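To illustrate the input format used throughout this study, we show a single complete record. The first block contains the structure-token representation of the backbone; no residue identities are included at this stage. The design step must infer an amino acid for every position from geometry alone.
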């Protein structure tokens, strides 16, 4: 229970704190104080948060990780809502507390980095990508690893850091970091790994020789109605379950405030072939399961943030129709939307039920109306 509450508190902090920057009175540093690129090398020491009983017995060591990242500072447009804004990529390698059962992880993440206090001192870094984990569940050779069922996984990270300027364009940056690994139930078991760590970074800033002028903020569609279609694959019950497709049709109303904060409402219709497999294994008459019984319909509330061509959304929904009621009626989504042009956006999503991952989804959305 303590580990679960820690995760909820950490996620709430990481999601809530970026929006405190939206009310800043003096949003950005002078141009001659902003670097164009930042190179970062860091060391992280931490621990896995045990979230099932067996984990308490086989976690032997603390975790130790190293990271190399490069980021580019963004100015103008949406970035002027923050005291500091950049985007970049990182490669991160870490141990996982037990080399025989959990092995180690190497991930590649694309991230955003936003100043959430005056003059860009306190910053929140967040992003997602892919991770390779060296040890996975195996019925014969690694049955204790109930956390990870595949070598390839998704990775989500939140990091709060506080740069301290040194001479010569260098800075030291202590940090607190939360990293989550999951395969979205593509291969079971998939309880996931939750890693909390403290780090110390050495950064090198490359500052331009001249002041760059700010660009005008691009006009945003403040209100829009969008439809979306996405597909995912997962196992529903256990490692012996059939790997099946899931389809999701959505309709959403999105409002983007001048501060780039997003609010919205939506509806989902979710069809899962995994239900057929579940019903086959638990009923003598599987042929009676039709299209309607394999579908769920829900209503969702939406919060998010616009970063120009990219948006990050978090949804909480409730199924008003759910024939099977396998994982409960409350569900969540975290997803990224990226503009493609002509009203289309690429959508990548992690869907879960009460912090238990159900599937990754990939799809498209189309603006039906905007103003």
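Output of the design step:
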């Amino acid at each position: 229970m303590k580990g679960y509450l820690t995760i909820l508190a950490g996620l709430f902090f990481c999601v809530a704190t970026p929006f405190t920057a939206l009310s800043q009175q003096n949003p950005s540093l002078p141009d001659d104080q902003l670097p164009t690129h930042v190179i970062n090398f860091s060391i992280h020491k931490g621990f896995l948060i045990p979230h099932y009983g067996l984990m308490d017995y086989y976690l032997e060591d603390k975790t130790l990780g190293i990271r190399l990242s490069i980021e580019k500072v963004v100015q103008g447009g949406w970035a002027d809502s923050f005291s500091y804004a950049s985007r970049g990529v990182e490669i991160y390698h870490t141990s996982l507390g037990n080399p025989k059962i959990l092995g180690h992880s190497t991930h590649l993440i694309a991230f955003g980095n936003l100043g959430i206090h005056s003059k860009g001192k306190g910053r929140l870094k967040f992003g997602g990508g892919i991770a390779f984990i060296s040890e996975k569940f195996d019925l014969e050779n690694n049955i204790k690893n109930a956390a990870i069922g595949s070598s390839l996984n998704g990775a989500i990270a939140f990091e709060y850091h506080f740069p301290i300027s040194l001479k010569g364009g260098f800075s030291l940056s202590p940090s607190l970091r939360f990293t989550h690994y999951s395969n979205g139930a593509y291969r079971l078991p998939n309880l996931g790994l939750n890693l909390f760590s403290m780090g110390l970074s050495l950064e090198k800033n490359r500052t331009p020789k001249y002041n760059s002028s700010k660009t005008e903020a691009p006009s945003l569609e403040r209100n829009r109605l969008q439809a979306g279609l996405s597909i995912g694959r997962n196992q529903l019950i256990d490692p012996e379950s059939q790997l099946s497709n899931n389809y999701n049709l959505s309709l959403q109303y999105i409002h983007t405030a001048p501060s780039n904060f997003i609010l919205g409402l939506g509806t989902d219709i979710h069809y899962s072939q995994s239900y057929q497999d579940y019903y086959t294994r638990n009923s003598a008459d599987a042929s009676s399961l039709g299209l309607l019984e394999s579908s769920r319909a829900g209503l969702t509330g939406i919060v998010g943030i616009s970063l120009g061509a990219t948006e990050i959304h978090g949804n909480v929904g409730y199924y008003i129709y759910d024939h099977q009621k396998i994982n409960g009626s409350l569900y969540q989504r975290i997803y990224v939307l990226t503009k493609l042009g002509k009203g289309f956006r690429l959508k990548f999503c992690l869907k879960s039920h009460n912090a238990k991952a159900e599937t990754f989804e990939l799809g498209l959305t189309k603006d039906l109306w905007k103003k």
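Structural context for interpreting the output: Confidence is low (pLDDT under 50) at residues 1-32, 209-217. Residues 2-16 form the longest helix (15 residues).
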